[in-house]
Design brief:
By secondary structure, this protein is an alpha+beta fold. The protein has four helices and four strands, in the order ααββαββα. The N and C termini lie far apart (about 50 Å).
């Protein structure tokens, strides 16, 4: 149908734009700035999550790569269980306890007022 074709063309255009942004330096100052800002935001979110979630090993904070491989890049599914969203992860995940502790620490933070 025409709607399906239009949707496909939009997806192709988006993928094509992203493909051109991946090459750094791109020659486009604005595109480079967006990638730099995105990287800085991702790094800061990761560091603050580790700090506030108290994710440590023997008293030292984890490196960003370790955080990504142990806590972020985990195969899991978000399922609807009786109207409640539940995150289903691996059965024997060695870092499940640390993840749940960090998650409860982050959820316990009160929002800023004012």
């Amino acid at each position: 149908s025409i709607a399906t074709l239009n949707r496909y063309l939009q997806l192709f255009d988006t993928k094509n734009r992203i493909r051109h942004l991946i090459v750094l330096p791109s020659g486009n100052f604005s595109a480079n700035g967006v990638w730099l800002a995105s990287g800085i935001i991702a790094h800061n979110l990761l560091r603050w999550s580790a700090l506030l979630g108290e994710i440590t090993i023997t008293g030292t904070f984890l490196a960003s790569q370790t955080m990504r491989t142990r806590f972020i890049a985990v195969a899991a599914r978000l399922v609807n269980a009786s109207g409640r969203l539940v995150l289903r992860g691996p059965m024997h995940w060695p870092w499940a306890e640390k993840f749940l502790t960090a998650l409860s620490n982050l959820r316990a933070i009160q929002p800023a007022t004012g």
